[in-house]
Amino acid sequence: MTARPPGPVPGQMAARPLRPVLRRVLRPVLALTLALGLSSCASGQSAGDDPEVLRVLAGSEVKDLEPMLARSGVKVKISYTGTLDGAEQVAGGGADGRYDALWFSSNRYLSLIDGASARLSTQTKIMVSPVLLGLRTAKARELGWQDGKATWEQIAGAARQGRFTFGMANPASSNSGFSALVGVAAALSDAGEALDAGQVSAVTPKLKEFFSAQRLTAGSSGWLADAYARQGGVDGIVNYESVLLGMKDLTLVYPSDGVVTADYPLTLLASAPPHKRELYGKLAAWLRTPDVQREIMASTHRRPAVPEVRPGPEFGSAPLLELPFPNRRAAADRLITAYLDEARTPAHALFVLDTSGSMSGERIEALRQTLVMLTGADRSASGTFSRFRSRETVTMIPFSDRVGTPRTFTLPAGDPGPALEEIRGYAGGLGADGGTAIYDGLRAAYVQSLQGDPDHYTSIVLMTDGDNTDGASLEDFESLYRMLPESRRARTFVVLFGESDAAEMNKVAALTGGAVFDARDSSLAAAFKEIRGYQ
Fold first, then answer.
1. Which of 32-36, 112-116, 280-284, 454-458 has the highest average model confidence (pLDDT)?
2. What is the pTM of this model?
């Protein structure tokens, strides 16, 4: 479930092959990691095995601990991935021999996959952070929760009545979003035990009421926090306690009926050789020393995992009641599906697609295959959850030296199959010819977005493989964008491909509050799949 995106708006379960993904600049922590003797590699890319280096497959949530690791006495090489993709990779044996250990915010979803447990060895809890609701202090006071006390039932009731709005990361992409969804569902179901698929169906109407108040989504907890801080008009945010404590003017609400916590287990793979087991043991022991635990608590706002270190006063004194987690993968997957297809606010996704002459050959074929993938051709868990969803509106806007005719597809609830087939046919008919009028295409997307349902969550994806050669300029687009009503200023997520002008595309993302995804040296399909977490 991803790293903080690049660009203009800083910022599991994400995409597998693309792991220079969201970066503030196109290679976010490269200079830092080189200086520290560490490296953040792309998921699935293994640089030869050094017997003195512990190779760790991790979720982006632990990236803030990288600087500390340089003092651990263990050389660590971290490769970042999303929780869903990482879990599938491990369960299928793809991590064996390529990595020595895992470090996700939680192993719960991984543990539900058949065969996964046999791939794991020692698991060491490093730190703890529950997923909570943070509300602007004035709103918490208005709702009577200024003391941080409420139940999920009360929170859901206020959401149903439209008394507050909130942002939450996509549970198909982020562990914080998934944990929040599990917690809310468990509390509202009154089941008192781990949810099964039947109970998920029963609680879905209540989830729909709760998520009617959601106005902001994201593919990662870090990006969500940054987007929330920049966006007015949203009253609260569901995120890790550690993230919320680092934000201003928030009252943290600790639901008395329970929470789901992340325990960040550093996990040894069963396939790791003996000398790597020694490195793992040394690193795990160092991370749990009292001094390091205090440093983690002070610098990241996560709770200590060892009894010798007392949690600071910022965490309060009330005990945390842990809500039950689904004990079957089918129930967990059904819960994510219910959120995407029934509970969350429907999405309007607009795709501005470069079909200029430079896209001919392999590039246009990659674009066709990518769009087909989003109709359900990718049968992996992350692929299944990133496909176009029921109730979603999808608009395709091709451009070359002029803008092609926009085509809108509406996926009905319950039976999106015919619309998905239409999208597959549309993708197969894309050709490449002419120049590149990027900003004419982008302008057309914003005009189209104004015609859509204002209650939909609207986002724009711009994919281009070159410089702007025709039509409007960046300055022209900026003028248009600033004329739009603030409530209709959709974010643009830019996919760099081919010879894209990275500096200019970062300006587009900065202006619109979006992010940049780099597919120039990796998979276009993976970039699009990861963007789906932000739609």
1. 280-284
2. 0.88
Map residue 401 onto helix, strand or coil. coil
Q: Would you give the end-to-end CA distance of the chain in angstroms?
A: 15
Judge whether 172 and 179 are in contact, CB under 8 Å: no
What is the rounded average pLDDT of the residues 482-493?
94
Calculate the CA 439 to chain-centre distance: 27
Report the CATH fold assignment for 30-125+265-301: D-Maltodextrin-Binding Protein; domain 2 (3.40.190)
- The more confident residue out of 522 and 515 is 515
Topology of domain 130-261, CATH: D-Maltodextrin-Binding Protein; domain 2 (3.40.190)
Q: How far apart are CA 448 and CA 349, in angstroms?
A: 11
Q: Are strands 407-410 and 393-399 parallel, antiparallel or unpaired?
A: antiparallel
User: For the purposes of burial, counting CB atoms within 10 Å of the CB of 111, is it exposed (0-12), middle (13-18) or buried (19 or more)?
Assistant: middle
How many CA atoms lie less than 13 Å away from 301 in the CB half-sphere?
15
Q: 372: part of which helix (H) or strand (E)? A: helix 362-372
Mean pLDDT of 510-534: 94
Distance set, CA 398 to CA 194, 199, 464, 475, 534 (Å): 46, 43, 10, 21, 21
DSSP 377: I
Residue 65, both tokens: 């601990």
